Amino acid sequence: MSARPETPLLDRVQSPADLKKLSDAELTQLAGELRNETISAVSETGGHLGAGLGVVELTVALHAIFDTPKDKLIWDVGHQCYPHKILTGRRDRIRTLRQRDGLSGFTKRSENIHDPFGAGHSSTSISAALGFAVARDLGGSCEGGLGDAVAVIGDGAISAGMAYEAMNNAGHLGKRLFVVLNDNEMSIAPPVGAMSNYLSRLYAGEPFQELKAAAKGAVSLLPEPFREGAKRAKEMLKGMTVGGTLFEELGFSYVGPIDGHDMDQLLPVLRTIHQRATGPVMLHIITKKGKGYAPAETARDRGHATAQFDVPTGKQRKAPSNAPSYTSVFGKALVDEAARDSRICAVTAAMPDGTGLNLFAERYPSRCFDVAIAEQHGVTFSAALAAGGMKPFCTMYSTFLQRGYDQVVHDVAVQRLPVRFAIDRAGLVGADGATHAGSFDIAYMANLPGMTVMAAADEAELMHMVATAVAHDDGPIAFRYPRGEGVGVDLPERGTPLEIGKGRMIQEGSRVAILSFGTRLEEVRKAAEALAARGITPTIADARFAKPLDEEMILTLAANHEALITIEEGAIGGFGSHVAQLLAENGVFDTGLKYRSMVLPDTFIDHGSPTAMYADAKMNAEHIEAKVLDTLGIAQIGSKRA
Fold this sequence. Notes:
This protein has about 650 residues and is an alpha/beta fold. The protein is built from 23 helices and 17 strands. The radius of gyration is 27 Å and the shape is globular. Residues about 185-190, about 200-245 and about 635-640 have low confidence and may be disordered.
């Protein structure tokens, strides 16, 4: 373990109110100590490092000038909130980040009064800030009171449509609120799109744009670190000054860009806009993700997400892999299929590495599309690609695909377009917690007419499902797979297309049948071994498909067993509900079948290891064993045989 840094000033800070007593020089020193403390803490816990390091100075400046928690400070996404947590009374717990019963890796309302609005997905902060501003002006009340509202949003997050919807509404209402555009030119993946290029042109332009006439006094206080870039200002659209930008047209007073790591700029500008603003203000700051920690600054992702690491070297301490990850198996399988079929293309929303499409992008850059944080657009874009004769794989995390659900319904399913949905991070995901859990996709996809829904039980099955999706042109098809390592099964050279709607038998037994959908199959096998010691040999089947169901297999299982138990890594309303509907319509319950469905509980499960989270959900092997015994009416006493 690395030695803890010396932090004499930070040691005096118990809450943001303590920052009001410090001089500007002391605030600058405090920022350095806060950066070192953040690095030290994340080296022990792992987590999102680079984003927080990029906003250390901003965090100190905002808490020094605004009056939190009365003033509502809203961090978009939340990846960058660790320094904020340290300053808001949570330093004593900062080394529990993302661990079971520890601090969340995101802002969380139930955790602290200084987290006025929870985050986990992007581009919500401006909407939330406007809501607080309107509540304030309407006489609302909440814990801590209602003052100013400040949204901090990154250049990646501001590419999403929701941010513009909020800015348009804010400009129309004209309420006093503050938006800080944290432009680090690097979200999770390199930012893409016209908006990023536009911000780059702003960066090359004027060093500081006055806040109407009111901020003129601040200009004389500022150095001009961006003057060198002014010679490139001609690249700006003709006739546009920085103040005549899109933001001004939306009704915001635009200030910037300024150096977000220079407290001599940041503090006077923030003080000026805080004192003078009457309507919505956009402060554009330039920062560097991973700032102040060389291993993060030089990393490809700027230290976006790290395991535990050694502070001097930055070397991460990761456990050796026993099997390839599902994500990597998907990525390699898709690249292999694309080598055989030039119509295969891939679409993701700002997560090429996270979804394994970085492999595809390297091999087939003209067929790989990162649409930025724009899941709605990504789904409709995929729909039109399919209508144009391509074979698009719309590849998104389950929790992010939720944001494009209207488009899944209207632009894909209604039109029966053969979009292939590759749904990563299915089920419970661990340290990111409830905001990133893939709990609902089985239910929200399987209820759509014409949608085919599959779940891989292991990494070999995932390869078969990629091949199945390639071959499937009769409407949309989706397949889901979890985060993390596979089971370690032997992989085929190439996946083989599955017969649509056909499951597979794993083990023949008696009395009870366990019908698994997805990767709980490995836990089912473990439960079966424990049950064998009690003289119970369950039948095990892998459904493979939630839609269409293998009706023949399911009805046969029901007919030949006194009990049938389904299990899935999803919420109520998914696979088990479809099976229950099938059994009910065929009168199976009339003959006394004992039916149980194991699903995720009707609650949001807090962060922890995946094993611990599934223990909370009561879906590990011991819970499956207990469910079988309970369903059969067998008391769990010692090793009593059935």
